[in-house]
Amino acid sequence: MIPFEKGQDEFANDIREYAGINFNTCLHCKSCTNGCPFLEGMDYAPNAVIRLVQLGQEEAALNSSTIWVCVGCNTCSSCCPMAIDIPAVMDGLRKKALEKKIKVPEPDILNFHTQVLNTIKKYGRTHKLEIMMRYKLKKMDFLSDMGLGLKMLKKRKLDLTPSKIQDKSAIEKLFRKKKQFPKK
Ligand code: SF4
Ligand code: SF4
C-alpha cells in the first residue's frame, strides 16, 4: 500500500465526495482512455487522471489540461466496467482548480464555458451569437472565423436576438444550488 502524505487523502476524499462516486474501484483497464474522442488533446489520459486523484496528486491533477479538454461526453463512463462516472471527477477537479485559483492551462475553454453559462443564466437558453461575440471579445480576436459566422447568419443558423424562457425561476434555482465541496 502506498502511504498518503499530508493533505493527499483530503484531496482524494473531497473529489470522491463531490463526484459522489468511489473511483477506488478503478481497475486501470484503460477502456475509458481507449474510447475517449479527445485523448489527443490531453496531457494525461483519463485513467491516469483517476490514478492521480487516487494517489492524492493534487498539483498534477489540478494543473492538467485534461480536466479542461474533457467535454463530459460520457463515452468513457459508458465503456467503464466499474461504471465510474469520470466526467463527474473531471467536474470536481475543474471546480477545485478554480477555487484554488490555479492558472487554467486552457483559458479559451474556460472562456467558452463561462459565456455559455452566462447566456443560460440570462435567458434560460443559450444564445449562440452572443456566446461567440463575448468569447471573441474576451480573446480580443475579432477577425478569425468571421467568414464562418457570416455564412451561419446567412443560413439563419444564428439568431440575432435571444429567445427567452418564460419562467426563469427554475434556472435561477439551479444556479443557486451549486454543488459544493464538503465543509471542513
Ligand atoms: S474504464 Fe473504468 S475501470 Fe477502466 S481504467 Fe477507466 S475508470 Fe478505471
Ligand atoms: S467524458 Fe471526457 S474523458 Fe470521458 S470520453 Fe468524453 S471527453 Fe473523454
From TrEMBL:
Pfam families hit by this protein: Fer4_17 (PF13534)
Q: Which InterPro entries match?
A: 4Fe4S_Fe-S-bd (IPR017896), HdrC_iron-sulfur_subunit (IPR051460), Helical_ferredxn (IPR009051)
> Do you know which PROSITE patterns this protein is assigned to?
4FE4S_FER_2 (PS51379)
According to the record, the segments passing through the membrane are none
Q: Where is the 4Fe-4S ferredoxin-type domain?
A: 17-47, 58-89
**Molecular functions (GO terms):** 4 iron, 4 sulfur cluster binding; metal ion binding; oxidoreductase activity
Provide the Gene Ontology terms for cellular component: plasma membrane
Keywords recorded for this protein, A-Z: 4Fe-4S, Iron, Iron-sulfur, Metal-binding, Oxidoreductase
- Gene3D superfamilies (alphabetical): Alpha-helical ferredoxin
Task: From the Swiss-Prot or TrEMBL record, give the protein name.
Answer: Heterodisulfide reductase subunit C
